[in-house]
Design a protein that fits this description.
Layout: E1 4-9, H1 12-21, E2 25-28, H2 41-50, E3 54-58, H3 70-85, E4 90-93, H4 104-114, E5 118-121, H5 131-141, E6 145-148, H6 159-169, E7 174-177, H7 186-193, E8 197-200, E9 203-206, E10 223-226, H8 228-243
Parallel strand pairs: 1-2, 1-8, 2-3, 3-4, 4-5, 5-6, 6-7
Antiparallel strand pairs: 9-10
Helix pairs in contact: 1-8, 3-4, 4-5
Length: 244
């Protein structure tokens, strides 16, 4: 059993930290406050140059819900093409219909456009009306992986449902727990779910390095960055669990 550890990176520094600390894949995103949106051309290009591990890029034109207009879908198609041109190993998508079902038709279009790169269906899955039907729908789109917390904010709380999804998937698609995953609970999540891939931001907040800040602006100038020690801890625990 080989475990994979995917780390969200919101900065170029985080990419290097995650890789050096034992990550096997980067999910590249912008805008942590929105839960992750599509990173810029320059960010993707720099990340690809800096990384030897797999690089998957978020395809999400805005924060908020996962029901997209035709105009937004055109943006997503262009961004998938950009990621392919820049040498990404895959993209991360997630589209729903208004009734909370998976938007199979447009998801299939993005999977086809992304080929031969991989496609993960992201935590839009945690907003579906029926996770067991949604699992079959995502498989039908051709995605290789689903990121889920089990339809609750924390994947440890959602672990029993994730375990049922792993069983239903039966190797047809990877079910990857994420959201709230830390070194303090990763082995428990692994034991309950039977999952082999895991996803975390391992985030900490770094204070501004500016020498001068206008106090009257009352701004929070902290930056979300990857905690290398936390990534190392999770990677070491998974390696030990795998060997044990």
């Amino acid at each position: 059993m080989n475990f994979n550890l995917e780390i969200i990176a919101f900065t170029i520094e985080s990419c290097s930290i995650a890789q050096a600390s034992g990550a096997t894949r980067i999910e590249l995103c912008d805008n942590p406050g929105d839960g992750g949106t599509t990173p810029s051309y320059g960010f993707i290009k720099a990340a690809r140059a800096a990384l030897n591990i797999e690089l998957y890029c978020m395809i999400r034109p805005r924060g908020g819900d996962f029901f997209y207009s035709d105009a937004e879908f055109e943006i997503m198609k262009s961004d998938v093409q950009m990621c392919k041109q820049l040498g990404c190993d895959g993209v991360v998508i997630g589209m729903l219909n208004k009734d909370g079902s998976v938007d199979k038709e447009r998801s299939k279009q993005l999977v086809t456009l992304a080929y031969p790169t991989g496609v993960t269906f992201q935590r839009a899955f945690d907003r579906v009306n029926d996770p067991f039907k949604a699992l079959e729908d995502v498989i039908e789109t051709g995605c290789e992986r689903i990121l889920t917390s089990g339809l609750v904010p924390n994947c440890l709380d959602g672990a029993p449902l994730i375990a049922r999804l792993v069983q239903q998937a039966n190797g047809r698609i990877v079910i990857m727990p994420g959201s709230g995953l830390r070194s303090s609970n990763v082995i428990e999540v692994a034991a309950i779910t039977g999952a082999t891939e895991f996803h975390t931001s391992a985030r900490i907040f770094e204070a501004t390095t500016m020498d001068f800040v206008v106090a009257g602006m009352e701004e929070d100038l902290t930056t979300v960055i990857v905690d290398g020690k936390e990534v190392q801890a999770i990677a070491a625990l998974l390696k030990s669990y795998q060997q044990g």
